[in-house]
Amino acid sequence: MKSISRLVLNEDRFFDPTPAVKTIARKLYQSVKNLPIISPHGHVDPTIFVENKPFTNPTELIIIPDHYIFRMLYSQGISLESLGIRPLDGSSAEANARKIWKLFGQNYYLFRGTPTGVWLDYEFSVVFGIKKRFTGETALEIYDEISEKLQTPKFRPRSLFDRFKIAVLSTTDAATDALEAHKKIRGSEWKGNIIPCFRPDGVTDLKAKSWRANIDLLSERTGIEVTSYSRFIQALENRRSFFKSMGAVSTDHGVSSPYTHEFTQGEAERIFQKALKSPATSEDAAMFTGHMLMEMARMSIDDGLVMQIHPGSDRNHNRVIFERFGSDKGSDIPMQTEYTRNLKALLNKYGNDPRLTLIVFTLDEATYSRELAPLAGHYPAMKLGPSWWFHDSIEGMMRFRSMVTETAGIYNTAGFNDDTRAFVSIPARHDLSRRVDANFLATLVAKHIVHMDEAEEMIYDMANGLVKKAYKL
Amino acid sequence: MKSISRLVLNEDRFFDPTPAVKTIARKLYQSVKNLPIISPHGHVDPTIFVENKPFTNPTELIIIPDHYIFRMLYSQGISLESLGIRPLDGSSAEANARKIWKLFGQNYYLFRGTPTGVWLDYEFSVVFGIKKRFTGETALEIYDEISEKLQTPKFRPRSLFDRFKIAVLSTTDAATDALEAHKKIRGSEWKGNIIPCFRPDGVTDLKAKSWRANIDLLSERTGIEVTSYSRFIQALENRRSFFKSMGAVSTDHGVSSPYTHEFTQGEAERIFQKALKSPATSEDAAMFTGHMLMEMARMSIDDGLVMQIHPGSDRNHNRVIFERFGSDKGSDIPMQTEYTRNLKALLNKYGNDPRLTLIVFTLDEATYSRELAPLAGHYPAMKLGPSWWFHDSIEGMMRFRSMVTETAGIYNTAGFNDDTRAFVSIPARHDLSRRVDANFLATLVAKHIVHMDEAEEMIYDMANGLVKKAYKL
Amino acid sequence: MKSISRLVLNEDRFFDPTPAVKTIARKLYQSVKNLPIISPHGHVDPTIFVENKPFTNPTELIIIPDHYIFRMLYSQGISLESLGIRPLDGSSAEANARKIWKLFGQNYYLFRGTPTGVWLDYEFSVVFGIKKRFTGETALEIYDEISEKLQTPKFRPRSLFDRFKIAVLSTTDAATDALEAHKKIRGSEWKGNIIPCFRPDGVTDLKAKSWRANIDLLSERTGIEVTSYSRFIQALENRRSFFKSMGAVSTDHGVSSPYTHEFTQGEAERIFQKALKSPATSEDAAMFTGHMLMEMARMSIDDGLVMQIHPGSDRNHNRVIFERFGSDKGSDIPMQTEYTRNLKALLNKYGNDPRLTLIVFTLDEATYSRELAPLAGHYPAMKLGPSWWFHDSIEGMMRFRSMVTETAGIYNTAGFNDDTRAFVSIPARHDLSRRVDANFLATLVAKHIVHMDEAEEMIYDMANGLVKKAYKL
How many whole angstroms separate alpha carbon A365 and alpha carbon A350? Predict the structure, then answer.
């Protein structure tokens, strides 16, 4: 892929311009550049690999599913409708994919200095072999070139999966999901390793949209009539077991706050029964979520599934957008998050147990050095997930490393997650992460903090070793 | 101005010492170095341009109005009286300007590594053409040299304004201000573009000093007897209209917290009536301020004035200093600030409206990447003001750019504000900002994150384009 | 010591690899490299200097007392027992020092990129003259080499103290401590300057372990029967006076929160009496601690002892570890900390008094630029302690300087503290601090922010001048 990317991408991109650092960074990066991609947490729709149909067009592939992209365009007054995002009420949205793409091209300058810009440059250049810069002028020409390629076998989902050297790709799935796509992939002749991740928010959060219906679906899926808290627990254990049989190695918990607290059996039963009868209060829901995190840790010790906590996002902050277009439209906003006191109950009960792996994420960078690195640098069960969402950028990843490593080392971190729903951005994101880590380590070598042979081991661990170990892959 | 500054100021100052970066930074900086200064938010006293009298002496010009300077000296045990700051009770203060200046010179080492030091070096060298370093030994010599120049026509306020190439300078004015100075400037033959900014804190904050008297003055200024909430709103609309007729393009709101919340008409009326009768409680005042921010956004949509929020300062933290010397004496201390939840009501109601421009500032750098960049990177109405007050320094501006750009880009920021009451520091502050931005962009170019032609467009936008657009200038 | 350290330690370690910076950093560092060590705050056991016996073995010297080391090993699933940490209940722990050391060596890679790794490399190389890298393979060989040296006179505590050029070493001692070791040192022919620091947490925190017994001990030590609040105050004044007579220059206060508040005499008496009778509530204890900080400031103005506040650690977060092994076992976790409002009462009452020196520390880096630098850059009494505990690392110290200096300058900081209980790490920690400061200043020089002659003065102050002034040494 080297020669075709020359016109846009520099081989030493993102490395420190100081020659003493750059030379080392380049060497470290080269040693991991071609390693397989391990993607233990993300949101790619597995159906695309079942059907393996050509992607419709560049707009449907790149713009429509990516809230990183339309968030930024929207912030500059470009309506979501004009980007082809369809309102829930069936009102019309722009249907001309080329017109949307052109508008995107004209506004591509907005992404200067952002990771989205960096990922897209990679996708254009390396994934699609485009030899010119993407601008308003070249947009349609590039559209046509990508369109044409998308119709060829090489650009079908499975081919790309193989070409991207993805060793394993985890999706994220509701506890009630039947995992039909996963079944079909496992039943097919194709060897792509796609695994589910158990995300029970829809049933553990008493305030989740359609919670009552989700509970009914949970009963249906498990054959266990969920009429009590104890049956609820039984049903969850049943589903975890099913997910595990389908290849799952982890669970994921998207919570407002990482608050943990253990109810007595009686308290849990009482609140659960109340919720079955009428909508839960926010207080009950928050307490119940805190309790369910404890339960999930307990179950993880039993069944070995790695537990992930993703807290701190105020989902659907913009009600206008949420009501018109639904969730995941770029208006989730981070909130200040507290871990030291909130995780205390869970860590005190289960954090000393080496059978548990608890991977904690944050959207609040102030907690890196203050709370998360000290916790991960002490409790055997706890590891730190990589810098997440708004922070999986060049500077964001660098801040993560420089604020975490001195207290927790690299060995209490869990490698890289791309966490994306944009399939073709996966190699771009892993490449960026490897470059940033190579550069981070090169700085340590150039400053004589670690030796080169140590850095060579570390870069392998940061690219592959740690993620394999943390997720038991 | 080049040759005279050689002895103290290096042409490449503040740029990254890595040659690959420095060369690019120098080039980018050169391209904006001589652009006009646009100063959309500040606190210079407009009277100086009405009178256009020579500045009295260096001490009155540089030390007395600048709490950045005497704050630092005070922290080292130097009394405000000895710096010529006069107590409110009429007690004496040092009156010998040369003696004060000498004391300042002897303690100038305290400003090493601070932006105040950097600005002062620029003022001495570039504004006043001093060819030696400022120290305790040279202080009086330099005093005399500046004094002499201040008596010449070239150093009168209007001449400096022109020489600084200030295209527009906004002052900050109480809602009840008659804008006499502005009227006189507009009525004069002088073409300096000095505009007011509508800052209604004195009437919207029910706990403001002299609130009741301010309300009476508001009645007097508008001819609307403010006996009810609805008349209060009417009077504010009247004043905004007057400010606009005087050239204002913006409003400004200095609040403890960016909390927003909408009262019913009845609630607003009830609390306002209560306040008219007896001093408001802190709770009522906080709620009312939150409501008034909503009202101000509504009015901005009507009249087009850009809305600024400056939250998070605990004003007059040191009561001893406040009671002896009054406000703005260097003891305002930042507090932790929350935006995601506090701005929710306002952004949900008005944030999707492209007619509104809401420029938000912070003194809490932890909110840059966590809250402010995500909000500005989504809501069309919201832009981020530059790093403010304690943070408009080299490292502070660099942190702003590196924590904001990856999420919000540069195009959701509002360019630079000097926010100063120290008139002669204006060119120093803009020069520093341009240098830091040039260096920031040079790093992006040297790391191959943006192309040089992109950086050339960006540096222009950061110096002039964005501020013009954000403030509709 | 130069030649023997060549194999492992680079002379330019930790400096910026950019030649323009490195050259300056090296020069600045050389100018302070051999200055005496001033250690005004730490936790070395003074008994070792009384007895002056050879240290038992490398494991007892380096691993057992250092929670930085076993914290990290524990986080990776290595039991404390296997590291020789003895449970309180008398259960067995590994007793074979060589076996423990071997385990440590095998896991030494965990410390890559951490300050502990950097300090240990220094200790091995410079203190013990080891000429090979420490790894699992070389561990036992190195053990033997250190063991042998520990038996020689050159490696006895007093000899090392002298060889380390420690000009003054402060211990940290309970208010009720009889300071027997200090008495013996002062009464001996040895000239090592070891002084106590008055830390009254055990009697001022009503929830402290054994508080009631501590009060009885306080009565015994002072001959003042502490049956009332006023006698409590009298007893504390008495102890402070005794500590001062033993060379103490400071007090230290380890509090959850820096909350300050002044009780009336009556309120203080009432709460104190309540606590004498039955265990205090958390609320009473928190309020009383806030009041006692005020009292301590008042006493400091009287007796001249420098007051230190170390807030923000959630001590013994891991109850399992605490109950099995006791305190200081690596499970203290930082919490978010607020200073602006919490210190207001104290600073308003005493912060303008130049007779008080209040040195404030933090574990919450978000407060550096937001609260601490603005406070220290205004109040004459307040100075900032260096980056502390989890943050006295290369990046941690750099963040401290870059977030504090622009607002508070370097002259409102208090130099470096090693704050260690690991005696042989003292020169390593001071060397690291001097290198980081030299590098910080070199960057300022290379960017033309300060002149070289200024940096030369500053590096001296950062290594020796500021700490001497702040602690009145």
Answer: 25
Of C375, C382, C444, Cβ closest to residue B113: C444
Using a CB-CB distance cutoff of 8 angstroms, which residues of chain C are in contact with residue A399? none
Mean of the per-residue pLDDT values of chain B: 97
CATH number of the domain enclosing B66: 1.10.2020.10
A15 touches chain B (CB under 8 A): yes
pLDDT in tens, A84-125: 999 999 999 999 999 999 999 999 999 999 999 999 999 999
Q: Could you tell me whether strands A194-195 and A250-255 are parallel, antiparallel, or unpaired per DSSP bridges? A: unpaired
Place of tokens 């260097």: B330
Chain C within 8 Å of A371 (Cβ-Cβ)? yes
Q: Which residues of B touch C28 (CB under 8 A)?
A: none
Final residue in a domain of this structure, among C104, C127, C155: C155
Same domain, B117 and B235: no
What stretches of C11-162 adopt beta strand conformation (E)?
37-39
- CATH code, domain carrying A377: 3.20.20.140
Chain A residues close to C321, C-beta within 8 Å: 352
CB contact under 8 Å between A378 and C71, yes or no, is: yes
The whole-angstrom separation of Cα B56 and Cα B79 is 23
Q: C182-194, pLDDT tens digit by residue?
A: 999 999 999 999 9
Shortest distance, CA C435 to any CA of chain B (angstroms): 18
User: What would the DSSP string read from start to end of C319-363?
Assistant: HHHHHHH-SSSS--EE-----TTTTHHHHHHHTT-TT--EEE--S
Option in C377, C382, C449 nearest B71 (CB): C377
CB contact under 8 A, A449 and C110: no
- Residue B34 tokens read as 């001589």
Please name the amino acid found at residue B168: V
pLDDT higher than 70, residue C244: yes
Pair (B221, B331) in one structural domain: yes
Task: Say if residue B150 is in the same domain as residue B233.
Answer: no
Look at residue A250 and tell me whether its pLDDT is greater than 90: yes
Chain B residues touching C22 at Cβ < 8 A: none
Determine the residue among C112, C313, C365 to mutate to test chain A binding: the one whose Cβ has the most chain A Cβ atoms within 10 Å. Answer: C112
Note whether C319 contacts A: Cβ–Cβ < 8 A: yes
The single-letter DSSP state of residue B424 is: G
pTM for this entry:
0.97
- Is C336 exposed, middle or buried, given 0-12, 13-18 or 19+ CB atoms closer than 10 A? buried
Are C347 and B318 within 8 A, CB to CB? yes
Q: What is the total count of domains within chain A?
A: 2
Q: Are residues B224 and B277 in the same domain?
A: yes
Contact A14, A436 (CB under 8 A): yes
Q: Which residue range forms the structural domain that includes residue B128? A: 54-154
Residue C365 near chain A (CB below 8 Å): yes
